[in-house]
Sequence to fold (111 residues):
Amino acid sequence: MDKTNLPKGWKYEIFDEIENPIAKYYSSLTDYGDMIKFSNITLPKTSNIFAEFDDYINIKKEDLKGITFEQLLFYLKNIEPKEKQSKKDCLIQLLNKNQIKYEEGLWDEAI
Fold:
């Protein structure tokens, strides 16, 4: 997603990025106006089957109990996950602790 050409009211930030010979990985937070989406994106470099994976969490803004996009982004940028834990796991713990509903899933795009 191109951060510079978003529809009015949308926000998009990449907060982690790693690349190796196999794939490019990045985590982002997107504000779609009525929903915030956390994404762990994997872009394989050598796959003949998949072009992209998105391990995501969707949260309706009406369910966020006053937590803002900026607060979630700050949290995700600064949280240090425990061993064998991801930032997605940390976000899920935060959402569960605050009894915030969310939808979790995995999306892939075939070549």
Notes: The first helix runs from residue 69 to 78.
